[in-house]
Amino acid sequence: MKYLRIWKRLAVMSFMVQVESFISSFGYLLGKLVRIGFFLFFLFSIFKHTDALVGYTLPEVALFFLTFNIVDIVAQLFFRGIYGIRSMIREGDFDYFLIQPANVLFRVAFQTVDFLDVITILPVLAVTLYVMRHIAGAAGQPAAPTLRWFLYGLLALNGLVIAFAIHIVVAALAVLTQEMENTIWIYRDLMTLGRFPSDIYDSPMRAILTFVVPVAVMVSFPAKAFLGKLAAGWLLQAFFMSMTSLAFSLWFWRFATRRYTSVSS
Amino acid sequence: MKKYWFIFSIYWQEGLSRRASFLMERFRALVVLISFYYFWSALLKHRTSFAGYDRSQMLTYVLGMNVLRSLVFATRTEEIAGEINHGRLSGYLLKPVNFMLYTFSRDLSEKSINLVSSIIEVIGLILIFHVDLKCPHDLQTWMLFLTACAGATWLYFILSFMTGCWGFWTSEAWGPRFLLELFLEFTAGAFFPLDVLPRMAQQIISSFPSPYMIFFPLQIFLGKINSHQILDGFLIQLFWLLAISGMARVVWVQGMKNYSSAGS
User: What's residue A3's pLDDT?
Assistant: First the structure.
């Protein structure tokens, strides 16, 4: 309950900042929605010339793209604070967090709550639900087996755990070096490789996106599970990757904070 | 002109000193390039052509798009709004320079650094993926292509300069600018050739200046449009250049009337 109260307070403060610069916030919000809309329109246009992309139909390819957006937007919504870790350290806020009676990682991650993402995620979820129902209907199943819906949700959550682990590692690197804030943008850029089904990539690239930078695990696996195209072995692999990456990232965070000697104030 | 050359030179050095930002920007461009390279390769794997493009033409478009994005869309005009809001513009007004030419010189340094880098990236990808590049064989097409690129560069610069001038009226120019940049990139053909879109969408988009920034020069490069279409394209590009330059002039003059830098 304590953390919920802290989150609520931070969220209200972020909301007030965003409302204060209404024109700018509205421009960003519209920009995010336009980007998603344009990409969906692009996919729709492509399928005017073809029936399939690496064996996937238009709604299936759209599901990959929408899943990418869900994981990406929710990760930004919850872990946005990590993007400002360097300035928190430089300006002394991080020192201040260390003496507060709350988990430091929680405080850093939720320092900023981007309400534009809250508004962006709603239409994305609505379109995703529509597409999923369409896919299930086209497959002759008015309602896809509950297991597939469940696996989709579980693997999307699994993708978020990996995203969280990556954000923690980036934050820990920033604490250790007081630099590396650009690392989070490298992650964001690599994430965009998950906009399309991972099957479009050839074998070395696909292996990199599965095992090294697990964009495929985070984004393609949930969609594949819903389409019934993910082998059980990959399910186990996905959960193993999220658990090990989370464990490693938490260890690395503790390692970094123990060596932190303050650089500001 | 010598002073503008010095400005170009100073910002070139400054651009190279901001290595992390520069590398990040190039990394981002490379990810877009790789993702669309694989996307079109997958679509053209079991077919000879797609929407009127054979494999060689489509991959040339994707690589050319990376180079042109670096030339046309690389800019530092986003700094203008901040310079106005924080009163730093006054410093430039006191100097014996034309502010628009100053920002253009600054932009050219950014564009040239990105252009060199993008050409190296493209050569690297051609060697790695053995891309069969479709290049014009005659000097005339190259000249037309380069002329269209020059027009596109000025067109984007003048448009983004004008949006930077929003800073005269608001300190919240970032959001609308983000929206405009996204819109321009999509409708310029900076992600895909515009003729893969439905005809109605193409007609709507062709009424904007953006297709003359990336799509039109690359259509000339690929030899996909005839001499009449090229002439029409240049006339429309010229129309937009004159219209937006005129608008930018009006916005600047009105903005200067509105400008104050009390306390700066």
Answer: 87
